[in-house]
Design brief:
Layout (H helix, E strand, L loop, with lengths): L3 H8 L24 E3 L9 H10 L14 E4 L3 H13 L3 E5 L5 H4 L6 E2 L17 E2 H14 L4 E3 L3 E7 L2 E6 L4 E4 L2 E3 L20 E2 L12 E5 L3 H10 L5 E5 L10 H12 L3 E4 L3 E5 L3 E5 L4 E5 L2 E4 L7 H6 L10 H22 L7 H26 L6 H26 L9 H23 L3 H31 L9 H6 L29 H22 L2 H4 L4 H8 L12 H6 L2 H25 L4 H29 L8 H6 L1 H10 L4 E5 L9 H4 L7 H5 L15 H5 L5 E7 L2 E4 L9
Parallel strand pairs: 1-10, 2-3, 2-10, 3-6, 11-18, 12-13, 12-18, 13-14
Antiparallel strand pairs: 4-5, 7-8, 8-9, 15-16, 16-17, 19-20, 20-21
Length: 753
Amino acid sequence: MWPSSYFRWLTKSVPTGPVEIYPEISETYETNLPNVFIIGDLTGVPLLKLAAESGVNVWKHIRENKVDCLDAVIIGSGPAGLSCAYEASRLGKKYIVLEANLPFQTILSYPNKKAIFAEPKGIKSLSKLNIQDSTKEDLLEYLNLLLKNEPIELVVGKRVSSIHREGSLYIVKTESGDSYLTSSVVIAIGKSGDPKRLGVKGETSSSVFYRLFDPYDTKDKSIVIVGGGDSAVEAAIACVRYAKEVNLIHRGKDLRRPKEENLKSLELLVQAGKVKLLLESEVSEISESNVFVKTPSSALKIKSDLIYILTGTTPPIPFLKKIGIKIQNEKSFSDWVGFTSLFSFATLAYFGKASFYGPGWFSPLATFFGGLSILSLSLFVFLKFKHGFGKFYPWVFIRNSYLLFAFSYFLFVYLAATYWNQPFMGKYPSFHYTMLYSLTILVFGIRRIFVRKTEYIFYQTLSLIFIQVFFLFLLPELILPELGDKGYLGSPEGYIRTEIFPNDAYWKAYGFILAWPLSMGVLYDGGITNFWLGYGVLFSFGFIPLLVYRYGKGAYCGWICSCGGLAETLGDEHRQKMPHGKWAYRLEHSGQYILLLAFILTLLKLVGVYGKIVNPNLALSESIADSVKWIYDIVVDIGLAGVVGVGFYFLFSGRIWCRMFCPLASLMHIYAKFSKFRIFAEKKKCISCNICTKNCHQGIDVMGYASRGIPMDSVQCVRCSACVSLCPTDVLEFGSINSTGIRYDLFQAKLRK
């Protein structure tokens, strides 16, 4: 029933997987604790070769301390920790490696004969470790031989219990009572924490295991394996040689995550009847000798001597929290204080600039939130001073200085115009806000070009800067008024000043770029002219549909729109903060209701404006529209697009407005259903690391597409290219589907190697 059926059509069967939780680290591997670093698997990239590389690269960022102590305590002796230790030896550093178990414990826990893939193939390794395609046994033999021939400062059986800060140093303590004074800590413990459990009756049975150690243990037994990733599939393949029967249970409709080689092997075994694969099935209970399973059509009882629950593990989040490391997207008190400051400033900015043509209560509201913003910003700075700022980063200093300048500047021009009746430079706050908006896109756009070094981002960012600075600031605010004053736009009775800019309304120039219904004034205007009626209809229902059909919704949202311009520049550092939960996927349909309301209001307005010429009674239609439109302006244009859209930047994401509420984006969602644009994935290279999904500004489960090799066709995509450029194995690529097959984009969206 509508709207449910409409929303199902709009979103199709898009993946809606969650984002894996990891510690929050910078691009230099540093956590929120100064000189405490995390490398290896716990960074979110499950590749042995890249883990080893991180062990080398982290030394480029560890700051020296001339105090007589260790240069680094390295926690963990897997490939990342071992590589870090060898690099420390090469650099002549004082270090020690603490291992809670045995060296290479994670690799030791792999099933026997497990295949090792040395991905990605293309990178030139700087690490002492030479990771090659092999098996578990071959890799362990190589690592143990390396450790024997070139020993490192390694102590086994030392589980770290605490890390305490002592001035600029750290004291690392172990459960056995040892303590180490060091200037830096490198955590390389991997992400294998506690195994994920099913939470069903009987799961504590002695026949239930969360790891397959040796496939021979299953000899002549009936086994059940639960899971849908590489571990579960590899276990099923390995056990076939020994077990009497193998059942693989997965709750999904298909197997998305396993590597191509594993899937092919499993398919052959399923076809041969050696593995029974149960999809869309869940374990409901485990008894002494049976597993009870719910399937879409029935309930089954499966004989089981051994049950392997291989659904993954949870990162060692409790340990990280205990030592004070911040977890991604977890909000601290200072985060909420910072959010209050930004949200209050956004309220000040949008209600403040609107107060000169809006209701009288706009001004006191803006002033109140201006005061609140000052108080919360002061508290935020105090908290930062109290807890320490950590290492000095030039960009962080530039960014924060600019934001403080923008805040102070707008507050000054607002107060001057409102309470002292002295518009700064003779311009009202709306002018200064637009100037700051454009300057922000310029400043943060330059930063984006230098940091995200791809051809695609270079041209995309230049496009966003040029359109914002010229078409959305200089042209309407300075150039056109100057041309009009000097008479270059013709006489007051001429076409330009009657049809395009009637009564010298140069603000209408925004409508050249900001289409209806993002800019309602393009079509919703009591004095609408034939020019704007024709242009608005052609732009929103002609040009944009063709653009979306060929290049996707992101051709407008990511290359032209001012909202997208701010999101892709100022919001670039915060794209991983977009919510991915169920409520977020439901909330993203809100824009469809706003679009419907915008359509009804505009239709009523146009019927009233043009219809009353024929029938005066139709003027009622315009009155009805106007009686609602002022509420629409406050709630949507000022509240959602302005206050929420900007106020949520640093706590959530710069695309909250674009994804959840924008009516133009919602209109383009309909167009995008027929678009040729896709993001193509080379499935066999996908390692299901979740980086693409985590960095999607629009909350799309990109990995859900990539791990299945399905071209990404989500209507939410804005072509920001983060998923493509940040993928560690170059899985993704922009392109389109046409009659001759796949055509990839001209501009390279991958990082320059």
